[in-house]
Structure formats: structure tokens, C-alpha cells
Amino acid sequence: MSPPRKAFTWIFGGGLILGLAIGLVELVAPNAASVSLNDQDVTGVAGLVVATCIGAFAGLILGLIAAGIVKLATRGSRRAA
Fold it and tell me: Is 81 among the domain residues?
């Protein structure tokens, strides 16, 4: 696996897991976390889905940025055989 793909996978996975964790906290203890959509508090399974989607979207954006930076940083390090 190439370094940019590793960076993207780790950051995207971290964002997805963070969103899932916040959604599970919202599902188990609604007063412990706040998930809102269109300025309304979302609870239950809808809160889990919204938090997971938001985490995945944030991880996607940050992962793509990090993968681009890693690709630019490692572009000249390969040597022709």
C-alpha cells in the first residue's frame, strides 16, 4: 500500500470511528453528547447515523488533503532502477 493511501485510510478510518463513537454515546446516554441536524437535536438511531456520516465526511475531506500532501512530499523519493 502506498504512503498516500495509508495516510488516507488512517485518517478516514479515524474520522469514521470517532463519528461512530459519538453516535454510540448519543445512543446510550443522550445527555452526554449532542448531535444536531438543522438546529434540532437528533436522538436515537438517527443520531447514530448523523454522527457517523458527519465523521465520515470530515474524515474523507481531511484524508484527501493529507493524502495529497503525502503524495507531494514523497514524489521525488523514488529512484529509477
Answer: no
Backbone φ and ψ for 78, nearest 5 degrees, come out as -80, 140
Cα distance between residue 16 and residue 10, in whole Å: 10
Q: Which pTM value belongs to this model?
A: 0.82
Domain count, the chain: 1
- The mean per-residue pLDDT over the stretch 53-72 comes to 95
How many helices (H) and strands (E) would you count in the chain? Answer: 2, 2
* Region 7-31 average pLDDT: 93
Task: Write out the residue range of the structural domain in which residue 67 sits.
Answer: 3-75
- Residue 59 resides in a domain: yes
Determine the straight-line distance between the first and last CA of the chain, rounded to whole angstroms: 20
Q: Give the span between the Cα atoms of 65 and 26, in whole angstroms.
A: 29
